Amino acid sequence: MPANLVVGAQWGDEGKAKVIDYLCKEIDIIVRYQGGANAGHTVVVDGKKYVFHLIPSGVIYPSTKCIIGNGVVLDPESFLQECEQVEKEGFAIYEKLLISDACHLILPFHKIIDAEKEKNCKPEEKLGTTKRGIGICYSDKMNRISLRAGEILEDSLLQKRLHSIVDRKNEELQKLYGVETLAYEDIYQKLKQFREKVGHLITNTSYYLNKELQAGKKVLLEGAQGTGLDIDFGTYPYVTSSNPTTGGALTGSGIAFHHMQDVYGISKAYATRVGEGPFPTEIFGEEAENLRKVGFEFGATTGRPRRCGWFDVEMIKHAIRVNGLTALVLTKIDVLSQYEKIPVAVSYEKNGKKLDYFPSYGLDRVKPIYEFLPGWQEDIVSVKQWQNLPQKCRDYIRYIEKQINIPIRIISTGPDRTDTIIMD
Ligand code: GDP
Ligand code: IMO
Ligand code: MG
Hints:
Blueprint: E1 3-8, H1 16-23, E2 29-32, E3 41-45, E4 48-52, E5 65-68, E6 73-74, H2 76-88, H3 93-96, E7 97-100, E8 104-105, H4 108-120, H5 134-142, H6 155-177, H7 184-198, E9 202-203, H8 205-214, E10 219-222, H9 246-251, E11 260-268, E12 271-273, H10 285-295, E13 307-309, E14 311-312, H11 313-323, E15 327-331, E16 341-350, E17 353-355, E18 367-374, H12 391-404, E19 408-412, E20 420-422
Parallel strand pairs: 1-10, 1-11, 2-5, 2-10, 5-7, 6-8, 7-9, 11-15, 14-16, 15-19
Antiparallel strand pairs: 3-4, 12-13, 16-17, 16-18, 19-20
Helix pairs in contact: 4-5, 4-6
The structure holds guanosine-5'-diphosphate, 6-O-phosphoryl inosine monophosphate and magnesium ion.
The site of 6-O-phosphoryl inosine monophosphate has 24 residues, from helix 5.
């Protein structure tokens, strides 16, 4: 059976988890394949809100297996806290979870260095990270000095590896950042606790996933962040340190590409971004405050206000190209109900010339060219049928579909699982 993928088409927080939760009703296995606890994924079911950071958003369904793939960077401490929280909420997480033995572990050093780097850099070098140690752990992974989940299963191996990591990282803390060193024993004890709690769930998940796919199971891959934050295809250096895009779903799960079928790109009907970096359609002042307030645009992980702007066709076309999107899901359309006219950036200009792609650099110097579409000015929250949307709202959606040239297959009209329109 196939594996489908959900990937953010913008700068994260597009409403991926809401869509994943919706799609999960027909799914046997859900897989997180990159990122870490920098993600904040919100699901609302019958008015109750759940926010997941590392645990896949399909956890709510009793029979869906949850996998943390090899491409994830996992913070054992915050992961156990999240598992406890999820258990309290009534989900039998320890009975349905598997963790890749090849995923890399975020240690306290990574979080301290992430925060110190942000604190001590020049203002123009600040990235606005979530301070969850993500980029620092991925650097250690690439540098071939990081600790993988499988290595903690054998105590002698863990101790040997950890001694060498602690020595190296403490030297870095002292010499580069001038902060206090960390005690080996504290970190070792925390990793031991992690092993006692979930050690039996650490396994070769690539082997497991390919076997289950061959046996006919349906798999959904859950992207965190989004295309604009991709280390290769995003607005470098204002990106996260992984590949949320389709290629990352394969390398971060170990699923063979021939299993892949649908790739759903998720986009808001407008745009937001948290942290630093270029954002061509960004709006400011009262206009932004208003959109932020109506869309409740505050980060699910850090609580930071999200920067707001308009739908950007070139950005979505870029996401379609690099991810091979087979469909777009348009979320938060209800947030636009207030406007008389809705701006949509249909193209870019740079130095007075049309630019028909999303550039790898210099995005801060492009000028978006807008079309203004008539608004519907009618409440559409929770509308569940296409024919019950106002005509001008349907025209807006059809206009975007024509611009991007792939089908819009799902429309989201509110945060709840049921606030969803499925297109024929
Ligand atoms: P993710 O990181 O892509 O999963 O998205 P987040 O959970 O960080 O942010 C999306 C926010 O929008 C959450 O608060 C969702 O509950 C909310 N949301 C999702 N879809 C809709 C929608 O169609 N309308 C409204 N009003 N809110 C939505
Ligand atoms: P979800 O999965 C929005 C942003 C941070 C920062 C940049 C780098 O909820 O969509 P990092 O801590 O990853 O090194 O920070 O990436 N960022 C996100 N923005 N949604 C996310 O995840 C994000 N995860 C990281 O704000 O600009
Ligand atoms: Mg989020």
